[in-house]
Design brief:
Elements lengths: L3 E2 L9 E2 L2 H5 L41 H4 L3 H13 L5 H4 L1 H11 L4 H12 L10
Keywords: Disulfide bond
GO molecular function, one term: protein-disulfide reductase activity
Protein name: CHCH domain-containing protein
């Protein structure tokens, strides 16, 4: 099997083969090409990998932008807390993490953050929006 370089940039290698060469099995000399047959690693995954760990690069997390954002450390703690139990509501089990993340995203001062935290934890007083 003979591979030829086509007109290409320095960063790219374009390999051209004939149809007859394409039909033949891959030789041992070109065994490095067998890795391209393993397409499972290229399939999109959801928010969890198969082993159960969190996929921080998932498109559902804006391709990692939520994690790399200036408030990403709050988002990571919130998402980890939310993922710990599937049965409970996230607002009930992670109110502090949620308040920290929202306050950071909205650039709220510490005083307003504490007001939000108290309002979430007490069910009697509804949270009012202040402008």
């Amino acid at each position: 099997m003979l591979f030829r370089r086509a007109n290409c940039e320095k960063r790219e290698d374009v390999l051209q083969i004939s149809f007859e060469e394409f039909q033949k099995p891959i030789s041992e000399k070109n065994s490095w090409m067998k890795s391209f047959l393993e397409t499972k690693k290229y399939r999109p995954t959801g928010p969890r990998f198969e082993d159960g760990s969190i996929n921080w690069q998932c498109s559902c997390m804006a391709g990692g932008s939520l994690v790399a954002h200036r408030c990403g450390h709050y988002f990571r703690t919130l998402y980890t807390c939310m993922s710990s139990e599937e049965n409970a509501d996230a607002a009930v089990k992670c109110p502090n993490q949620f308040v920290d993340w929202v306050a950071c995203m909205q650039n709220l001062p510490t005083e307003r953050r504490e007001q939000m935290r108290q309002a979430m934890l007490s069910e009697t007083e509804p949270l009012s929006v202040q402008k």
